[in-house]
Amino acid sequence: MKKWSSVCFLCMCLSSVQALEVNLASEAELDGLRGIGPPFTRRLMDERQRHAFQDWQDLMERVAGMGPKVARSLSQQGLTVQGHSYAPEHHTLPSKDFKHPKP
């Protein structure tokens, strides 16, 4: 029973996502994320050297190829910006009763 408990605990630990701060991560750690390769990592590192990323929007604006889809994927793998996971802005659509002003 102890062995089984130990194996279950180990599996849970390995499956949990560890946070990886974009402003502190090494090049090797960033390269280890699915969906980005060395050229993307190099662009990210170059921008980070200029100054730290303030939030996900800042990261997406400064790094070519970083859009909402990539940000969501990287965040799901544990990447954070200033300790925060990616949370896209929720835009509300106008209700059906809303009438656009005539030009």
Question: Can you walk through the features of this model?
Answer:
The protein is 47% helix and 4% strand. It is mainly alpha-helical and 103 residues long. The chain has a domain at 18-80: Photosystem II 12 kDa extrinsic protein (DNA polymerase, domain 1, Orthogonal Bundle), CATH 1.10.150. It has a two-stranded parallel sheet. It is globular, with a radius of gyration of 19 Å. 15% of the residues are buried. Mean pLDDT is 81; it is low at 5-16 and 90-95.
What is the helix tally? 5
Report low-confidence residues grouped into runs of 5 or more: 5-16, 90-95
CATH domain class name of the domain at 18-80: Mainly Alpha
Helix content: 40-55%
| Architecture per CATH nomenclature, i.e. the level-2 architecture of the domain at 18-80 | Orthogonal Bundle
Query: Rounded to an integer, what's the Rg over CA atoms?
Result: 19 Å
Order of neighbouring strands in the sheet with most strands: 1-2
What is the percentage of strand-forming residues? under 5%
Number of strands: 2
**What's the CATH H-level homologous superfamily of the domain at 18-80?**
Photosystem II 12 kDa extrinsic protein
Structural class: mainly alpha
Order of helices and strands: HEHHHHE
Largest sheet: 2 strands, parallel
End-to-end Cα distance, whole Å, is 75 Å
- Averaging pLDDT over every residue, what do you get? 81
Spatial shape: globular
CATH-assigned fold name of the domain at 18-80: DNA polymerase, domain 1
